[in-house]
Amino acid sequence: MSVAMQYLFQGWNTRGNGKYKDLILDTGSEEIGHVEMIATMIAQLLDDAPVDPQENAFESDPAIAAVMGGMDLQHAIVTGLGPTAKDSNGVPCNGSYITASENLLADFHSNINAESQGHLQMAEHLSIKMSQKCWEKNLF
User: Fold this and answer.
1) Is residue 108 part of a domain?
2) Taking Cα atoms as reference points, which of 85, 71, 83, 94 lies closest to residue 42?
3) How much is the pLDDT for 54?
4) What string of H, E and C letters represents the secondary structure of the chain?
5) Which of 43, 76, 99, 139 has the fewest beta carbons under 10 Å from its own?
6) Would the pTM count as exceeding 0.90?
7) What pLDDT score was predicted for residue 139?
8) pLDDT in tens, 105-124
9) How many domains does the structure of the chain reveal?
10) CA 124, CA 110: separation in Å to the nearest integer?
């Protein structure tokens, strides 16, 4: 959401050459598409979730089971685990993270920084997941 909002507001603030405005707005629209894909994937995964483990957790203590599983109880109570416009800590999205200065070059530099940080975080996440899979298969 933050990337999509940043690109969209930058596009709306762009003056002058229309091709740069179109480029930024198209990128923002593409990012909204990514949000839609993730929200759809979450909904589909929840549709096929097995019921037995959920029933067993509720039988003992649903709040403790939820917290031990890493669930945000507020997310479960308010949205039924559906997608929301919040970060991974449950903080609602707001406009404080958007960089849209009307200075096209400065905005492009901000975007490069944000995209680079996103790629770094994804690489770290994938590295951790691969290590976990190797550990589970006793490859170490």
Assistant:
1) no
2) 83
3) 63
4) CHHHHHHHHHHHHCCCCHHHHHHHHHHHHHHHHHHHHHHHHHHHHHHCCCCHHHHHHHHHCHHHHHHHCCCCHHHHHHHCCCCCCECCCCCECCHHHCCCCCCHHHHHHHHHHHHHHHHHHHHHHHHHHHHHHHHHCCCC
5) 139
6) no
7) 61
8) 888 888 888 788 777 777 77
9) 1
10) 21
Q: Tokens for 83?
A: 């997608």
Q: Is residue 130 part of a domain?
A: no
**Residue 45, domain extent:** 2-102
Residue indicated by tokens 């933050």: 2
pLDDT (tens digit per residue) in 21-56: 899 999 999 999 988 998 888 888 878 777 776 667
- Is 81 part of any domain? yes
In this structure, are residues 3 and 29 in contact, taking their beta carbons and an 8 Å threshold?
no
CATH of residue 49: 1.20.1260.10
Percent of all residues in the chain with a pLDDT value above 70, rounded to a whole number: 85
Q: Are 43 and 82 in contact (CB under 8 A)?
A: yes
Q: Tell me, yes or no, whether 57 lies in a domain.
A: yes
